[in-house]
């Protein structure tokens, strides 16, 4: 009850734009003990959503997050990482990385999540996933090959290592510059997560300017 009340207060506090000066470490976001190296040019700020296709909170976050991403400035690079926490999560993570490898993830993403959350499909069997992929211009053979590829297995291993490095036990999360973690609890609501992330982007810019 107290936790819910605090979350409600946070949601009210951040109902509008949030500035770097407004956010508090350990309250609105967490700092990673050992920051991860980002995979973007030095003049870019990386923001990564950590998600699971089957997560109802990730599903609810899709619309506000996509709207936020569409308005990100040129110095911000947005990426996604599927979290392989458990067997079902791992099968969905394999689907994500295989779809990305095939170049169809952006196109099939909403449909895949709708199939899980609206139609009640599990989509954890590789044959079912491959069949789903055939609706996006790839053959079932191509899909199965991607699902079993070394590249996808490597992506799963890297994602698992990053989850441990970030000390993440759930989703969704937003990681800013490989150092700052925003969760629904810290942000106060799903809708506030992009707002806190925007403030952290500003914070990273300020830190970089100060270090020059």
Automatic annotation (TrEMBL):
SUPFAM superfamilies: Thioredoxin-like. Residues 8-152 form the Thioredoxin domain. Gene3D superfamilies: Glutaredoxin (3.40.30.10). Residues 1-20 form the signal peptide. Keywords: Disulfide bond, Periplasm, Redox-active center, Signal. Pfam families: DSBA. InterPro entries: DSBA-like_thioredoxin_dom (IPR001853), DsbA/DsbL (IPR023205), Thiol_disulfide_DsbA (IPR050824), Thioredoxin-like_sf (IPR036249), Thioredoxin_CS (IPR017937), Thioredoxin_domain (IPR013766). It is found in: Periplasm. Belongs to the thioredoxin family. DsbA subfamily. This is Thiol:disulfide interchange protein. It comes from Salinicola acroporae. The lineage of its organism: Bacteria, Pseudomonadati, Pseudomonadota, Gammaproteobacteria, Oceanospirillales.
């Amino acid at each position: 009850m107290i936790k819910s009340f605090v979350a409600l207060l946070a949601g009210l506090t951040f109902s509008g734009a949030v500035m770097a000066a407004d956010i508090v470490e350990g309250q609105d976001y967490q700092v990673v003990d050992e920051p991860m190296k980002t995979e973007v040019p030095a003049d870019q700020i990386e923001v990564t959503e950590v998600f699971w296709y089957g997560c109802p909170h990730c599903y609810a976050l899709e619309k506000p997050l996509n709207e936020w991403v569409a308005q990100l400035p040129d110095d911000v690079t947005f990426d996604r990482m599927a979290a392989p926490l458990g067997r079902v999560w791992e099968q969905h993570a394999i689907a994500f990385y295989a779809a990305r490898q095939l170049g169809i993830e952006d196109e099939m993403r909403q449909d895949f999540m709708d199939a899980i959350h609206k139609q009640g499909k599990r989509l954890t069997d590789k044959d079912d996933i491959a069949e789903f992929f055939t609706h996006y211009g790839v053959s079932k053979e191509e899909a199965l090959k991607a699902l079993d590829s070394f590249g996808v297995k490597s992506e799963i291993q890297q994602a698992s290592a990053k989850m441990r490095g970030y000390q993440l036990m759930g989703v969704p999360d937003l990681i800013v510059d490989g150092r700052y973690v925003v969760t629904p609890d810290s942000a106060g609501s799903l809708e506030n997560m992009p707002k806190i992330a925007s403030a952290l982007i500003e914070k990273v810019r300020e830190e970089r300017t100060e270090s020059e």
